[in-house]
Amino acid sequence: MRIIGGKHKGYKFTPPSKTPARPTTDRAKEGLFNILYNTFEFEHTKVLDLFGGTGSISYEFASRGCQDITLVEIDKGNIKFIHRIVEELEFPIKIVQLDVFKFMRTNPLQYDLIFAGPPYPLTKLDTIPDKVFEHNIIAPEGWLVLEHNPRHNFDDHPHFLRKRNYGTTIFTIFEAPSLEK
Fold it and tell me: Which CATH architecture has domain 26-175?
């Protein structure tokens, strides 16, 4: 695996061999970050990476200048690996080892951009957008980007904005209403 953009573009890393994570492909990451780069100023964006896995998405944000990143992951092996990369590259990533759903229930902060890359077989995957909005962890006009496969469809969700398809990887983007609405 590698970081595909920013200051650390081309940096290669090898995640633990027994990781339960399903890393996002380079092609899908590149497409997603092209969309995000045209909407957000990463230096001023507060990012939350849910189901952080190997940390790949957080590394992309950090490499592109994001200074406020929180990554939530429960797997101990992945957490250890992420700590190593964060220390080596001096990335400003806060690492939280906790179940994502518990984090959403107990976290008092809001984020401008939330990325959720859950395991595709997760039985509660369809509830993630509702939980994000229910627990008020997304800032007004913030985006939630949910990575999923074609078995899930969120086109009728009240906060649906758009989706992008990269083969078996789909990013559905949801937008929080502004305060003026």
Answer: 3-Layer(aba) Sandwich (3.40)
